[in-house]
Write a structure and sequence with these properties.
heterodimer, A: mainly alpha, Cytochrome Bc1 Complex, Chain D, domain 2, 11 helices, 8% strand, globular, B: mainly alpha, 2 domains, 10 helices, 1% strand
């Protein structure tokens, strides 16, 4: 890993958080995506997210919680226990909770109902730690089982349409000290911040690039990031307050992105800067 | 904000209300309901409070893509620009240009104003996140236009100096729904920092103008 990361590639990969980067100092600087493409080639099919995936599969099958049960009866939308293809069809409306749920909020429901795990424990844990870490590993397992499938979140139920509308509104909602909305950074395919290309998430193609590659293993932080975490960090950069984990706005944004990305391909888990 | 400013803003709001056709009022109502749900999803963290995303009239108008561009919102946008123009204050001592070397540092730094920053942290201008500015810095964004050779091509007449100060102070005075933050208006930079960035753009000795 160390070796791969040396030289020109590390200059681009190591850009760090986009607001903290300084000069790369090359003449024709490759963009961050050029760098990551090279890195992907070098490690071929291996994605460090596989470690999370393997752990997630174990957690899926392991009895846990006060009810000492596994997640094997968890209904992710395609029926109890069906994992294959489920992530490609989320977020969606669930009758039992009467809510539109993304993968993470749905897993929390399963952990609560089947295993007796307190959702508050998950919400309150920092990303990458404690009860949240377990959810993240299971996310890696579930999204890997939708790899190469078509993105196809249903948009039929009135609550799904409502969530889409809310997500669209949230996408354009400007506020805070910098007047930013998601659209400030993501409504034009030709724009970039420093050297990081920004997909146009309002178009089918751009949304597929965004949605289809997340959750992802992030090379710069050496961690697996779920979609909730991706959105959380974008809101941080947006100078917004902290979005509560699995809050309406985060699920609505995912609903909006997934619907825009319909017909695109799931490349999950992605590999990102 | 000055009282006259507040009154002016209130009148802009009224004008907006009167100007809206019923269809727009309808969507505005639906939007207001959604905005409540959006804000309810956040919590205070570090230096960023939930209250900070309560919208002013500029943010409210520009959150509707139909109003942010195109004909439908043209009148409202003009009113918004006028209101923002009123907020612009010249430098306290009338001196617009500082030290371009310091300005380069300010333009480079994109730090500050996130929930992971301390209140004592010095903000950066984040200019390179969006603009090409000096030739030496190839890691620049493209959300804004290139500012390479800015002073060389425009000169530094009083009009150019005032416009550049104004644009940085409050970009929405010139383009209601600009992607550029209102740097002076929201105190993102100090007056000294802004003067230094001004010199980066306008000082003939600055590398931007070589």
């Amino acid at each position: 890993m160390k070796k791969i990361m040396s030289g020109g590639v590390s200059a681009t990969l190591g850009l760090g958080l986009c607001f903290l980067v300084t000069s790369v100092g090359a003449q024709n600087a490759p963009t961050a995506s050029d760098g990551i493409a090279k890195y992907r080639e070098m490690i071929a099919d291996g994605n460090p997210a596989e470690l999370y995936e393997a752990e997630g599969e174990q957690l899926w099958k392991k009895a846990a919680g006060s009810k000492n049960a596994t997640l094997e009866k968890c209904d992710l939308g395609l029926g109890a226990g069906v994992v294959k293809g489920a992530a490609a069809q989320l977020p969606r409306y669930f009758k039992d909770t009467n809510r539109v749920q993304d993968l993470e909020s749905r897993l929390m429901t399963c952990m609560e109902v089947l295993q007796g795990i307190d959702p508050k424990e998950i919400v309150d844990a920092p990303f990458g730690k404690g009860a949240k870490k377990a959810v993240e590993a299971v996310v890696a397992y579930v999204v890997t089982s939708s790899r190469d499938m078509k993105i196809n979140a249903p948009m039929k139920h009135p609550k799904e349409k409502e969530m889409y509308a809310l997500g669209k509104r949230a996408f354009y909602y400007r506020g805070g000290a910098m007047d930013f909305s998601c659209a400030s950074c993501h409504d034009d395919a030709s724009k970039r911040i420093r050297l990081q290309d920004l997909p146009d998430l309002t178009s089918a193609k751009g949304a597929a690039l965004g949605w289809g590659y997340w959750p992802a293993y992030r090379v710069s932080s050496g961690e697996f990031w779920t979609m909730q975490r991706r959105l959380n960090d974008c809101y941080r950069q947006q100078r917004f307050p902290y979005p509560n984990y699995v809050s309406d706005v985060t699920i609505a944004l995912s609903t909006y992105l997934a619907a825009n990305a319909k017909g695109g391909v799931m490349h999950t888990p992605g590999l990102k800067r | 904000m000055k009282t006259s400013q507040l009154i002016f803003r209130a009148s802009v709001l009224c004008a907006l209300g009167l100007a809206s056709i019923s269809g727009y009022a309808q969507t505005a109502k639906a939007q207001a309901a959604m905005d409540k749900a959006i804000v309810a999803s956040f919590r205070d963290e570090g230096i960023i409070s939930v209250a900070s995303i309560t919208q002013d009239e500029t943010q409210a108008l520009c959150s509707d893509p139909k109003m942010a561009t195109g004909k439908a919102g043209a009148k409202q946008r003009a009113a918004i620009e006028a209101a923002n123009m009123e907020t612009i204050l010249p430098p306290y001592d009338g001196v617009y240009l500082g030290d371009w070397k310091e300005g380069e540092k300010v333009a480079q730094s994109g730090r500050g104003a996130t929930w992971t920053d301390k209140s004592s942290a010095v903000n950066g201008g984040g200019c390179y996140n969006c603009h090409q500015i000096s030739k030496a810095e190839v890691s620049h964004g493209t959300i804004g236009p290139s500012l390479l050779g800015y002073g060389k091509t425009r000169g530094n007449s009083a009009a150019v100096v005032e416009y550049t100060w104004g644009k940085m102070y409050n970009a929405k005075a010139y383009n209601a729904c600009s992607a550029m933050p209102r740097i002076g208006h929201f105190n993102l930079l100090t007056e000294k920092q802004m003067k230094d960035v001004m010199a980066l753009l306008l000082d003939p000795a600055s590398p931007v103008n070589q």
